[in-house]
Amino acid sequence: MELSYFCVRKIWISEGIDKNPELNISLTFSNPSGFSMNSDSLHLLIALTMIPKVGPILAKNLLSYCGSPEEVFKASRTKLEKIPGIGDTLAPHIAKCKPFKEAEAELEYIMKNKIKVLCYTDDDYPTRMKHLPECPLLLFLKGDVNLNADKSLSLVGSRNATEYGRYVCEEIISKLAKENVLIVSGMAYGIDITAHKSALKHNLPTVGVVAHGLGTLYPAVHKSVADRMLKSGGLVSEYTSQTTPERDNFPARNRIIAALSDVVVVVESAKTGGALITSSFAAGYNRDVYSVPGRWGEMYSEGCNNLIRDGNARMFSGVDEMMKELGWGEKNKINSSSIQKQMFVDLSPNEQIVFDLVRSESILSFDVLSIRSELPTSLLAGALLKLEFEGMVKCLPGKIYQYVR
Asked: Is 301 exposed, middle or buried, given 0-12, 13-18 or 19+ CB atoms closer than 10 A?
């Protein structure tokens, strides 16, 4: 019989193992969702996300400077004050905040409800968003979907979709069916739910990014659609299970919709609205943004027309034209110059490890490379410098490294 995490943890405490680092053991478990990692690490990572005023950027700073979630919660106020972004205001707050019981309840809920947890250092964490400083430390996923699909498209728009907007959604998705594109949206009324329903109709995987925990669904009327999505798609959230759909969560949710996608299509939007926030995030992430033009004077065409007028989106003029511009439908071509580049450059073992990591995911941050390569920062920096000189990787702002094809 397999002992649960909670039973084993009680044994550890009763035997004093938690208090004696020399006796600590690494316990891994497998839950029905297939997630496997060190239980204590996951427990503490969840606890870290529960500290008020600590968002994704500060959480990753804490992990980077402290080295592990365990060390974050052991860190003194003095040590915390020296971490960028923390300072003397947040340091005492973080040092005192230990939401371990809440995190343990969350872990129990995750296991019971077959929720998969993706840490930003995991291989199956969405590659498209790993390099973004504000990407969530953890993503909670329910369903059966590959978030690293070859092609991913978001359809967003007004909650008050018109018949024309629903027609456009259906047309776009029906013509993308043969491309096996992952369809992403936000589970809201209007354009969002139309996109999810159309994807299901045409057997395309579809993901709903929600602005609350996976312990609920908003709006509740979409539960039947969500249940169907779990079989060929899923629901994604950065929030723990009991988080309610607060107003500020929705703009934050929109950045994930944009980050998960190669291209964002705004179908309908008023002069202001959530779809425009998503398109703004997408542009900032160097995603392709398209806007469906509408009739002059129509309320839910004004935002779309303004995007085109201001040069913030391309005019959507049909799926075939969009696919041509995106290079979809074409066979992948091998870049012989990059192959020759690799053949004739003599790399050390450390340099080869780092190069292979960057090449495998196209873009990786220095922090993630440090964790994955297990190299001291001095050796990692030297290896990256050599790869830059050879033109094999490119350094982007924010210590992000990109594979040069």
From this structure: buried
Proportion of the chain above pLDDT 90, given as a percent:
65
Query: Among 46-50, 122-126, 281-285, 393-397, which stretch is predicted with the lowest mean pLDDT?
Result: 393-397
* Mean pLDDT of the region 72-86: 93
Catalogue the E-assigned strands of 123-232.
138-143, 152-157, 182-185, 206-209
Q: Return the sign of the alpha-carbon dihedral for residues 79, 85, 90, 95.
A: negative
Number of domains in the chain: 3
Q: Same domain, yes or no, for 162 and 32?
A: no
DSSP 246-312: -TTHHHHHHHHHHHT-SEEEEEE--SS-HHHHHHHHHHHTT-EEEE----TT-HHHHHHHHHHHTTS
Its domain, for residue 382, covers 336-403
Question: For 124-153, what is the mean pLDDT?
Answer: 94
148 belongs to a structural domain: yes
Q: Which tens digit of pLDDT belongs to each residue from 186-198?
A: 999 999 999 999 9
Considering the domain boundaries, does residue 95 fall inside one? Answer: yes
> Which residues does residue 157 pair with via DSSP β-bridges, in sequence order?
268
Asked if residue 207 is part of any domain, the answer here is yes
